Amino acid sequence: MAKQTWKPGNMLYPLPAVMVSVTDGMGNDNIITVAWAGTVCTNPPMVSISVRPSRYSYEMLRRTGEFVINLTTEKLAFATDYCGVRSGRDVDKFAEMKLTKEKAQFVGAPMIGESPVSIECRVKEVFELGSHHMFLADVLAVHADEAYMDKDNKFQLNNARPLVYSHGEYLSIGKSLGTFGYSVKKKNRKPRKPAKK
Ligand SMILES: Cc1cc2nc3c(=O)[nH]c(=O)nc-3n(C[C@H](O)[C@H](O)[C@H](O)COP(=O)(O)O)c2cc1C
Questions:
Q1: Does the reported pTM lie above 0.85?
Q2: Number of C-beta neighbours around residue 129 at 10 A
Q3: Candidates 21, 34, 60: which one to mutate for ligand 1, based on the most atoms within 8 Å of Cβ?
Q4: Which of 21, 100, 160, 191 has its CA 20 to 30 A from that of 92?
Q5: How far apart are CA 83 and CA 26, in angstroms?
């Protein structure tokens, strides 16, 4: 296989593109679409988002040290893109996209009601890396939409049709190829026949 070698760049795809909600604590709320987001630690649960200082949301993040990560879905694709190409300096994205503000439990920033999962976060440290500053944050709470609970009360996130962002394109998730650990799982054995007496 012949691979072209390119200069260093960002090519870690696919990714989720999330809608991050923020507030200035003085009545102004905003949403910024972020693809440079990630889980960084299981215990304690921690995430990161990387944001350019030029964004309107940046000052809010710095001031309050709080944000909510709202997962996106196929239904939210248009709003996800819009919140990533329009600035809160010029438009009220909640109003324009008819998104519902829901009060969060621990942070001042509102959650987005239409999102299947909202993750409340408090910034622990900011790393001024270069073009983007990385906000390393503790997860304070996860809110999951009951509409995606199955009969066994198990959350079926994939039924919400999560949005995938890959190399400049929004995609839906495809068919399931297996579940966690399936590669090493023992094949279903036939039940043993009872021993003859
Ligand atoms: C799919 C997508 C992903 C994006 N990811 C990031 C990101 O990770 N960090 C960032 O600073 N901006 C990112 N942006 C750009 C901001 O969302 C965009 O500049 C937005 O208008 C900023 O809003 P604000 O000025 O209201 O804060 C992304 C945009 C899109 C469409």
A1: yes
A2: 9
A3: 34
A4: 160
A5: 21
- Going from N- to C-terminal start, the domains of the chain cover 15-172
Taking the mean position of all CA atoms in its chain, how far away is CA 11? Answer: 18
Cβ atoms of 3 and 55 within 8 Å: the answer is no
Flag residues of the chain having pLDDT under 70.
188-197
Mutate to test the pocket of ligand 1, among 22, 32, 58 (most ligand atoms within 8 A of CB): 32
Neighbouring residues of 16: CB distance < 8 A, sequence distance ≥ 6: 35, 37, 71, 72, 162, 163, 164, 165
**Helix, strand, coil shares, percent, the chain, to 5:** 15, 35, 50
Token readout for 173 is 């998730």
